């Protein structure tokens, strides 16, 4: 069908990303064609260097493909200007990283308010929304702690609250449990399960850990910049619905 179909949150058509380093070209992505359903929980796996983070940067509008098309909610975003990309990114996408990416000597609350600085909502509303986002990840009472006084799991919760605060349709998480022990990682996954199930946020997560990947409903495997496999099964989120939400 030639017309854009809006039943998929993401549609990738033959995405290629080539990095040029001096004389050498690195083909990080070699033609990725793939679609993601609304409210999907997708895990992306694959060996180091297979292109996972490159793909996440393109999905997050932090980078542009060398060629190919990316439709986000039916809109071709592959050729937008930087400003247009930033506007869509701020409105629709939340990010969670392995190393949390928080301002360390700043309170949890201020970190979560950060994405709202450039929006035109009042400081009162920004505060209310940040408080609510922190409560949603189980950090009520921790709002005024500096993030460098928090545990790894708590820091990742702050990062998730920050990703949530603009009410995104899509959350991208690159190795969100990579710096956490397995128990804390499972707690973080419970939060992701709830966000996916209760708020219908589409979740795309990169992980090396098969246990973490098993929470997702769908697993996509990359190798050398190409899709080499896909698995669909009931995810751990579906098997054991997160409680306490
Ligand atoms: N900014 C860059 N400049 C040049 N080459 C890059 C850049 N970013 C990534 N690459 C190269 O692109 C390829 C894919 O890298 P990418 O970071 O996407 O892999 P990955 O699957 O995320 O790996 P890991 O599991 O180690 O995080 C690698 O060969 C990498 O060296
Ligand atoms: Mg990576």
Automatic annotation (TrEMBL):
Gene Ontology molecular function terms on file: ATP binding; ATP hydrolysis activity; transmembrane transporter activity
Gene Ontology cellular-component terms listed: membrane protein complex; plasma membrane
Keyword ATP-binding annotated: yes
One Pfam family of this chain: ABC_tran
Residue ranges occupied by any ABC transporter domain in the UniProt entry: 10-244
Annotated InterPro entries: AAA+_ATPase (IPR003593), ABC_transporter-like_ATP-bd (IPR003439), ABC_transporter-like_CS (IPR017871), ABC_transpr_LolD-like (IPR015854), MacB-like_ATP-bd (IPR017911), P-loop_NTPase (IPR027417)
Keywords (A to Z) from UniProt: ATP-binding, Cell cycle, Cell division, Nucleotide-binding, Transport
GO biological process, one term: cell division
Metal-binding recorded as keyword: no
Descriptive protein name: Cell division transporter, ATP-binding protein FtsE
């Amino acid at each position: 069908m030639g017309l854009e179909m809006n039943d998929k949150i993401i549609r990738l058509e033959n995405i290629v990303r080539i990095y040029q380093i001096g004389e050498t070209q690195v083909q990080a992505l070699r033609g990725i064609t793939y679609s993601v359903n609304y409210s999907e929980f997708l895990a992306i796996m694959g060996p180091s260097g297979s292109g996972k983070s490159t793909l996440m940067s393109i999905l997050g509008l932090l980078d542009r493909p060398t060629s190919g098309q990316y439709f986000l909610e039916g809109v071709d975003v592959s050729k937008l200007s930087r400003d247009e990309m930033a506007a869509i990114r701020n409105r629709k996408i939340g990010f969670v990283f392995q190393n949390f990416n928080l301002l360390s000597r700043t309170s949890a609350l201020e970190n979560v308010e950060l994405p709202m600085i450039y929006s035109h909502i009042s400081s009162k509303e920004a505060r209310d929304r940040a408080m609510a986002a922190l409560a949603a990840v189980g950090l009520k009472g921790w709002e005024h702690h500096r993030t460098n006084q928090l545990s790894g799991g708590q820091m990742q919760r702050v990062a998730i609250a920050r990703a949530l605060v603009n009410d995104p349709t899509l959350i991208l998480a690159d190795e969100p449990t990579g710096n956490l022990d397995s128990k804390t990682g499972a707690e973080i996954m419970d939060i992701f399960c709830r966000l996916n199930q209760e708020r219908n946020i589409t979740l795309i997560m990169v992980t090396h850990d098969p246990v973490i990947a098993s929470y997702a409903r769908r697993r996509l495997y990359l190798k050398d910049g190409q899709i080499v496999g896909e698995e669909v099964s009931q995810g751990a989120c579906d098997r054991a619905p997160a409680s306490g939400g």
